[in-house]
Structure formats: C-alpha cells, structure tokens
Amino acid sequence: MKGRSKRQLNMTLKDMEENQRARVISIFGGSSLRQKLALRGISEGVGLKIVSTRGPVTVSIDGNIVTIGRGMAKKVKVRKA
Description:
With 81 residues, the protein is of the alpha+beta class. It has a single domain, classed as Ferrous iron transport protein A (FeoA) (SH3 type barrels). It contains 3 helices and 6 strands.
C-alpha cells in the first residue's frame, strides 16, 4: 500500500469532498441497508463522483444523481479513485 495514507483507505462517503471520485470498497450494515443502497446504484465496486456533501450526500453514478442521508453515507467505505 505504498503511497496511500491510512486515512485514504478508511474514508466514508461522508468524508469525501465535492468533485472527488471514489470507488465503494464495502458497506457496513445489514441486508436492509445494502438493499436500499443497491436500489440507488450504490454497491461494492461501484465508481462514483461526489456532487455535494452539504446536508444529504449527493453522488453521481454513471450520470445518475443519487442522494442519501448522512447516516447512510457514514456506512459506505470508499477509496479515492
């Protein structure tokens, strides 16, 4: 893991800044949360771009805009792309 700080490897969607790109590494939650996120296009391995982190977290996935609450965003672990 040369060149990457520990902080970059332990980021959540909530920690990201606007216009950054990331890839979902894992989701910390039960099947209900995973299903809710999957229906919005957020699952492990998906690449996305942060649109806004003010209030709810808004991301762009393949041109589709998705907004999730900050509580959900804290459970989605990502790595900067």
